[in-house]
Amino acid sequence: MKTAKDNKIALVTGGGSGIGLAIAQKFVHEGIFTIIIGRDEKKLQHAKEKLGELCEFISCDLTDLKAIPVMVKKIVDQYGKIDVLVNNAGINMKKEFLDVTDEDFQKILQTNVSAVFSLSREVVKFMVEKNVGSIINISSMASQYGIPKVIAYTASKSAIEGMTKAMAVELSPKGIRINCIAPGFIATDMSAAALNNDPERKQKVMSRTPMGALGKPADIGDAALFLASEGSKYITGVVLPVDGGNSVGF
Predict the structure, then answer these.
(1) Which of 6, 65, 77, 246 could join 209 via S-S bond, C-beta 3.0 to 4.6 A?
(2) Is residue 206 a part of any domain in this protein?
C-alpha cells in the first residue's frame, strides 16, 4: 500500500480557501500529498474533508517566526521530505496612504514577506540535502503597476518578486527552482465583494483585461501545478502573470 512518503509532498500556505485551496485541489488530483497551512482550524478541517486522504492540515500562525523551524522539522520527521512549497498566504489592507500607520505597514510585511522568507529558508535546508525542490511564490498585479490605497501590500508583493529572482539565482545551482505567479483579478469571495461594491473599479478592471472576464482560482492552480512539475524543469526565476492579459491591457 502506498503511503504519503511515496508521493511528492507539498506545503501550501493559506490552503484553506480561495487560491490556496484551488492549488491544493490541483495537487491532490495529480497525486501530490498536500499539507495545507493556515490559522483557521475550522476552515482547514473543512478543506481537508473536501480534499480527501491525500491532504493533511496544520494550524499555524506564520507571523510567529519562531514556530516555523519547529513546524518544518516536524513535517520532515513525519514525511521524510518536502518537494514543493507554495507561499500563498497573505493579507491585504485598503487604506489611504496618509492613514497607514507604521504598525499597519509592519503587519503586512510580517505576514507577506518575513514569514515567506523564514518558511522558505527552513524548507530549503531540507531541499538542499536532496538537491531538488520547487518553491512557488504568489505575487499580485499590485507589483506590476500602481494601485491606490494598498501601499503596504504593493511593497510586500514587489519584495516577493525581488526575492524570487534572488533566490532563483542562488538556489537553482543546488537543484531548487524558485518561481512566482502574479494572479490578475481572480473571482474569489473576497475579490467579488470588493468589485461588486465598487462598480467603477470593476468596470476599470474589465476594460483593461483583454480576455474580458475575471480569472478562476483553478487558473492559478493550473499554473502552480505546472511550476511544481517536471514540465517546468528548465524554468526558474520567472514571474508568471495569470491575468487574462490585464498587465498588458490598455
Answers:
(1) 246
(2) no
